[in-house]
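To assess whether the prediction recovers the assembly geometry, we first specified each molecular entity separately, as shown.
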Amino acid sequence: MYLNFRTAGRRSRTAAGLAVAAIATAGALGLLSSCGQSPHSSSTGAGAITPGPGQRQTAGMPGATGSGNAAGSASSTSPMPGMSMPTSPSSAGAPAVPATGNAVAIKNFAFSPATLKVKVGTTVTWTNQDTDAHTVTSVGSGGPLHSAALSAHATYSHTFTEPGTYAYLCTIHPFMTATVEVA
Amino acid sequence: MSDYHDSHDGASAGDAGRPETEHGMNRRQLLRHAGWFGGAVVLTVASGEVISRIADSRDSNVGAAAGAAAVGSGELRFVQVSDSHIGFHGPANMDVAGSFGEAINKVNSLGFRPDFVMHSGDLTHLSTAGQFDQVKQLMAGMKTDRVFTVPGEHDSIGDAGRAYRRTFGRGTLGDGWYSFDTHGVHFIALVNTLSLEKLGHLGNEQIDFVRKDIAGLSSDTPIVVFSHIPLFAMYPQWGWSTDDALKVIALLRRFSSVTCLNGHVHQLFTKTDGNITFHSATTTAYPLPKPGRAPAPTPQVVPARQLKDALGIRSVGYRQGDRELAIKDQRLA
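The predicted structure of the complete assembly is given in tokenized form:
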């Protein structure tokens, strides 16, 4: 049973969520964690792992010596939404250094150019030239840039229809930041 | 901002008015804390292992105790592994699954069975369902009763952590945070990788969780906090800090001894701030540069025989009677 599955989406910094996630069931924690059977745990429960206040079951998963461990049972997770592979670049390929005003290279863990100035209506294309994956993601909530994880040589494009300054980062390497200025 | 050097500016909420002392601790807290930590952690390298040992502890064997085979009853032993990046493939490590397997073998051959293992994030490299399955199956082979996790930013790419929680979210609250108790120690597992804007971020809902979680605890309760990104300002230029961590730090000031264990930076680092000691863990995947020693925190390629020296696991021992925590970092080599 999973608790509190929230809808996806980057929450705004200013949103002050004050609700506590789970309502504590009053009284003693009746449920002991499922980590009994431990020979070196004292039967008094001092060695047991018990969930904190307001939590009815212990987080985590059983280890090899934990109870209820079905080793090797593959969990049936469904494919992740939005993780389809991005399209490969055309055979023309992007220039190594953005020479035109509508290309951004992702190279050596940096966006280049760090500030790109374009006119309204321009389609900007990002090309990952690193071997490691990166994303192009608007800072804060509500921004237009939301790429999947871009593997090596993958591209991501977005057409800017409104003037403004669009700050973005790589969510995998958040020290990578850049902006597009649309006039 | 995340600067701890003058953290008693009164701006933080939940700060119980303490008599001002040099370390922001009252005398009783200071004595308690010294009893557990001796105020300093000594890093020594012996036979290829980095051992962080508490200085001036009454029991000089406390550092070695973490790795000793004899386990007294009532003694807590747990292991931290971190940053396995299953799915990474590059010259810095062509076989991260293999090196994580070696780390698991290390855990299974410590000479004692840890009460639990905590993986402090970046289990996967790209948050795919296949990578989550693989890391979960690998971890199921660890000889311990329970395996805990917190997500890294690599475990929550593009989906605010939903795939992570599908695999590891059972029994957690909110976006995946939780707490538990064992051997008289209270453990808190935090998530600071979801609303990243350069720095790690906890969010008000999670900070409220911590406030309520510790409200009923005696100030003598040892606290251990896990997070992926450091809760202290290790190197903000590379995002190695958490922008709202001070709100949690303020809540933890009243406790005699607090230990914060993080991953993310792929290297050992220890900082003590009053009653709170922060320990960054190493990785099982690939080394990252020391702060400022490279243009960016990118995977470092080292000669193959040196790679294992850069990778490792951490075991932690705690004896209820002695109020001491012993941390031992071991290389895979």
